[in-house]
């Protein structure tokens, strides 16, 4: 539609509005955008104001409400008491399988506290979700996943604002062969296994401001707890640096039928205390997690009906429904615990730090953890993968803030950063010959979620118009300093196999946004307020 | 009133103040901080799972029962389990408090050790250029933000000249049998120099200025004239007669400073990654870790109140003019 016609249309509508009070329209109710406080995350904070400004231009009465982070999570997930909220999902490696992010739009995850707080409800989408979860043929599954992205995009229940690049650095005079992994950056489980020392020191030193909440495998609820623990606990499957499932403690994973999977263990594995790792340990671990109050792995364990030992080295998983991502997600996440230690523990959540067993079977063995200061692991020379590992151990120094980490990197006290650098540090690191800066695209994303239960967000046309009114290009250029990418679907472009590049895109276009609203019967009053 | 009843009265007052503070802390945190389960679980728990987590930490009980339990435990020095660390709070607090106090006490001793005689000396040379420069330097460090002076110190002496370490209190990892073993090493001293200096420079201003100003008042007193008339040396008048009398306000200031030191200088602890109580409190509030935050603040309050009590008692001996009213 040209501008002329649009203007004509608007004035016609205005005339109708004046001459026929019977169909007088009402102003659209004011809306609030929830976001984080500036100190917690200036990017999301500023982003909210950029969006609010454009929405006001469209005639909406908008206010921005920054909120303390935990309160924000509470309002969003537990109470679903919001109009529109800016939050983010971190790109953890187990989320590379599309199952997780697609599930955030499943209507059956719309109850309080679950992952679809916006309340998107589309039976077609749900049916496709079930179909892809049960589809073992990878190409057929990909088609379904692509279709899902196509289906939901037109309805825009959620807007993927942008993906922020993870920019980290390491000291190239100490180590080489440091390969960053999508979504994980340098601090992946593979870097300690692949790093090659080039200096005198053979212990890899990592530094970061984050520390595990605790190292109890039945109580830790943070990514930082698990990033550390996964190095000394093995899993049946590990996801390779290219994010493909590779058999790990499992020698083979064989589907018996749609709902039965048999896992054969590697021969000769032992725990760090010398006890053999057997099929009993596997069955015990999964049952122990399923029986415990620990909810962190619940979504991974949900498809399992029972786990039984079928031989010295074989375990059978009986599923309640077919689950295509079972091997990628579930088998690659659950840490194998030694039954001979944990079977004696009745209330694992209540263990004090001194009581927590730290015996795993992983390529590294737990050495120490001094809260607030230091953690270390030594290489487990009895591990089947040990010959591939060049470092003798891993150390992690805990700093109070990102500034301390960067100083330590500059002085050579640490070899790599565990967490993204601050924008101001990046050029400094790039100018330092001893440091190599690595940038990886993130498949996690920052999103604006609309509450579809509320006006005006229950109207598809409004959501579409408001999405067109978001200058996401500007957000990436200004807020991320160009280190990122404008979002499209919840499955990020870097996740190339599953990402559908041919979905409807919502470019920044205020005229198109107005046209969309007009077409849906909205108009503007004399003061420019949007009304319907 | 006898001295004995005065003391009893002061002790009762102190306990009463502590109780008030404990009560305020308890309710303030519950009203002001978000539900800790929100901070515990980032993944979105369903209602049933949340209730389980809340029950596990006793948050489902009625508020009054939580309050009674909190008070009875606190009296016994028991502060419960930290939500995020799942470890006894007292253990965390005492360890962190030790780390903070060693840093702060060293800085305070340095600041007062230099500040008091320097203040006295400046008052003696009042109006001179030395006096002006001394006041200026004291005020400058008092007003410069510590994160700024700290960062400059790190950049110059840590990154640039590589003389001092830039973070932590020991070269990691270290093994120590107890607190004394942790701090009586050259390595600790090496790590402590920069943060102690930064805090000391910040604190220096108070004793310096208070001392200088009270000294000026004391100079006008009759007994100074008397001493002069007796033909005593200026140096003796200054340090033996005047300074002793000017010390009282400095002692009060010192007690308050030591009391507040328990909370640490959060900024310095963050800038130097010093594992102290201040940094811990910041995290506790951020994660709604009620037990840890409550206990930390309560212990800080106990410090301030106890030290004030001690000062009052000390005054009864130091200053004969204090009467027991």
UniProtKB/TrEMBL annotation, chain B:
Going by the UniProt record, its keywords in alphabetical order are: Cell membrane, Membrane, Transmembrane, Transmembrane helix, Transport
> Per the UniProt entry, what is one GO biological process?
transmembrane transport
Q: Does the keyword Transferase apply?
A: no
Q: Looking at the keywords, is Nucleus present?
A: no
Indicate the segments forming the ABC transmembrane type-1 domain, all copies: 97-311
Name it: Peptide/nickel transport system permease protein
UniProt xrefs under PANTHER family? OLIGOPEPTIDE TRANSPORT SYSTEM PERMEASE PROTEIN (PTHR43376:SF1)
> Where does the secretion signal sit in this chain?
none
Annotated localization: Cell membrane
GO CC, one annotated term? plasma membrane
Record InterPro entries: BPD_transp_1_N, MetI-like, MetI-like_sf
Q: Where are the transmembrane segments?
A: 12-33, 101-124, 145-168, 188-205, 246-272, 292-315
**What's this protein's family per the entry?**
Belongs to the binding-protein-dependent transport system permease family.
Question: What does UniProt list as this organism's lineage?
Answer: Bacteria, Pseudomonadati, Pseudomonadota, Alphaproteobacteria, Rhodobacterales
Q: Which domain of life is it from?
A: Bacteria
What is the membrane topology listed in the Swiss-Prot or TrEMBL record? Multi-pass membrane protein
């Amino acid at each position: 539609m040209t501008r002329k016609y649009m203007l004509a249309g608007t004035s016609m509508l205005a005339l109708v509005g004046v001459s026929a009070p019977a169909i007088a329209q009402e102003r659209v109710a004011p809306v609030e955008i929830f976001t984080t406080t500036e100190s917690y995350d200036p990017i999301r904070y500023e982003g909210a104001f950029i969006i609010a400004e454009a929405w006001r231009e469209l005639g909406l009465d908008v206010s921005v409400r920054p909120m303390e982070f935990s309160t924000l999570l509470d309002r969003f997930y537990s109470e679903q008491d919001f109009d529109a909220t800016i939050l983010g999902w971190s790109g953890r490696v187990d989320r590379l399988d599309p199952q997780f992010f697609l599930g955030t739009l499943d209507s059956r995850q719309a109850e309080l506290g679950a992952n679809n707080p916006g309340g998107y409800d589309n039976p077609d989408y749900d049916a496709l979700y079930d179909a892809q979860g049960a589809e073992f043929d990878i190409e057929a599954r990909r088609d379904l996943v692509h279709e899902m992205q196509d289906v939901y995009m037109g309805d825009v229940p959620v807007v993927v604002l942008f993906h922020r690049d993870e920019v980290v650095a390491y000291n190239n005079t100490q180590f080489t062969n440091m390969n960053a992994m999508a979504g994980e950056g340098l601090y992946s489980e593979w870097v300690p296994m692949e790093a090659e020392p080039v200096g005198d020191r053979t212990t890899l030193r990592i530094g970061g401001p984050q520390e595990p909440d605790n190292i109890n495998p039945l109580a830790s609820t943070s990514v930082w707890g698990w990033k550390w623990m996964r190095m000394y606990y093995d899993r049946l499957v590990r996801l390779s640096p290219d994010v493909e499932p590779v058999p790990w403690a499992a020698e083979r994973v064989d589907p018996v039928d749609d709902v039965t999977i048999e896992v054969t263990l590697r021969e000769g594995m032992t725990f760090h205390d010398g006890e053999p790792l057997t099929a009993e340990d596997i069955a015990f671990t999964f049952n122990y997690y399923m029986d415990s109050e620990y909810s962190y792995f619940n979504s991974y364990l949900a498809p399992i009906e029972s786990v039984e030992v079928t031989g010295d080295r074989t375990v059978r998983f009986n599923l309640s429904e077919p689950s295509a991502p079972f091997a990628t997600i579930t088998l690659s996440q659950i840490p194998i615990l030694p039954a001979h230690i944990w079977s004696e523990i009745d209330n694992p959540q209540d263990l004090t730090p001194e009581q927590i067993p730290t015996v795993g079977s992983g390529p590294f063995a737990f050495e120490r953890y001094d809260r607030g200061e230091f953690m270390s692991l030594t290489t487990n020379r009895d591990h089947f993968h040990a010959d591939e590992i060049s470092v003798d151990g891993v150390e992690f120094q805990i700093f109070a803030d990102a500034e301390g980490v960067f100083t330590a990197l500059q002085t050579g006290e640490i070899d790599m950063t565990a967490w993204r650098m601050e924008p101001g540090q990046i050029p400094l690191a790039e100018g330092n010959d001893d440091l190599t800066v690595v940038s990886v695209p993130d498949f996690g994303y920052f999103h604006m979620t609309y509450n579809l239960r509320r006006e005006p967000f229950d109207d598809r046309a409004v959501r579409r118009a408001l999405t067109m009114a978001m200058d996401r290009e500007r957000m990436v250029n200004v807020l991320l300093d160009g280190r990122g990418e404008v979002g499209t679907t919840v499955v990020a472009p870097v996740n190339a196999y599953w990402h559908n590049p041919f979905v409807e895109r919502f470019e920044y276009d205020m005229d198109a946004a107005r046209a969309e609203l007009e077409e849906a019967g909205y108009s503007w009053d004399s003061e420019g307020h949007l009304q319907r | 009133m006898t001295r004995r009843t005065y003391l009893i009265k002061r002790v009762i007052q102190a306990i009463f103040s502590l109780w008030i503070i404990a009560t305020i802390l308890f309710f303030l945190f519950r009203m002001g901080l978000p539900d800790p389960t929100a901070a515990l679980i980032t993944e979105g728990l369903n209602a049933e799972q949340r209730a389980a987590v809340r029950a596990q930490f006793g948050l489902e009980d009625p508020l009054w029962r939580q309050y009674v339990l909190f008070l009875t435990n606190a009296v016994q020095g028991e502060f419960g389990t930290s939500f995020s660390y799942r470890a006894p709070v007292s253990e965390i607090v005492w360890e962190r408090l030790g780390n903070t106090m060693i840093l702060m006490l060293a800085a305070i001793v340095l600041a007062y050790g230099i500040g008091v005689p320097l203040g006295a000396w400046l008052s003696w040379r009042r109006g001179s250029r030395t006096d002006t420069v001394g006041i200026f330097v004291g005020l400058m460090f008092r007003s410069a933000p510590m994160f700024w002076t700290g960062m400059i110190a790190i950049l110059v002496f840590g990154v640039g000249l590589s003389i001092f370490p830039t973070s932590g209190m020991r070269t990691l990892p270290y093994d120590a049998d107890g607190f004394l073993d942790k701090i009586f090493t050259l390595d600790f001293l090496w790590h402590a120099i920069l943060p102690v200096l930064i805090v000391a420079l910040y604190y220096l201003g108070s004793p310096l200025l208070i001392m200088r100003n009270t000294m000026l008042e004391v100079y006008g007193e009759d007994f100074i004239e008397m001493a002069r008339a007796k033909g005593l040396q200026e140096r003796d008048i200054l340090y033996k007669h005047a300074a002793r009398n000017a010390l009282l306000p400095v002692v009060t200031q010192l007690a308050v400073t030591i009391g507040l030191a328990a909370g640490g200088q959060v900024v310095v602890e963050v800038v130097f990654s010093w594992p102290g109580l201040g940094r811990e409190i910041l995290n506790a509030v951020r994660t709604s870790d009620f037990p840890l935050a409550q206990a930390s603040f309560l212990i800080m309050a106990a410090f301030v109140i106890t030290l004030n009590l001690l000062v009052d008692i000390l005054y009864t001996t130091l200053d004969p003019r204090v009467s027991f009213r």
